[in-house]
Amino acid sequence: MSYSSWYAVAEGGLEPLQRSLIDIEAETKHQRSYNPDIIPGLVQTLAYARAILTKCSAVLELPDDSEATAGVRLQRQAVLDSPGHLFHLLIGEAALRRTVGSHAVMVTQIRQLADILTARDNVEIGIIPLDAEFLAPADNFVIHDTSGVDIEAVTGSIETTGEDEVALALRTFDLLASQAVYGEHAHALLDRALAEHVGPGI
């Protein structure tokens, strides 16, 4: 198990850290991820990514390279078209309701999610309703095949390849996935969130 401070891996900005994920994701054949509060990077729009990364740079007091870093984040999305890659993304409903950037940014982001949910056979998106029962503690985490887990904490990233830790992450992911809704039920939650963001004046 290893811990890397955000300051250690992003001293000059966030772009190198973002770029390092391209090879990791290219080598992963089955990626599972859980994001309770934000949309996963692999399915973000450019405007959403830029808004997220601007805030990350600000809180870390780093040079704002959000434009370049957002571009790299979109480069990562090429892996979605790579043969033999499967993605199972769990997203908390709170991520749909939270305003990132602006309501207009959220409208475009939610519509893109709806398109991906319908059009991509290799990407499974599950949305965990706000009123789902608490089953297990979990922060943002990504499971790479069955070999490793990356966990995002407030101060840095935790990476583990320990057999027990990977098994725990898989078990937790399965519990969370059992609460998620898919298909037309996921579309219903997307439509509800979309209506809320359109309402303020889009």
Automatic annotation (TrEMBL):
It comes from the Bacteria. This is DUF5753 domain-containing protein. Residues 18-192 form the DUF5753 domain. The lineage of its organism: Bacteria, Bacillati, Actinomycetota, Actinomycetes, Mycobacteriales. Pfam families: DUF5753. InterPro entries: DUF5753 (IPR043917). It comes from Nocardia rhizosphaerihabitans.
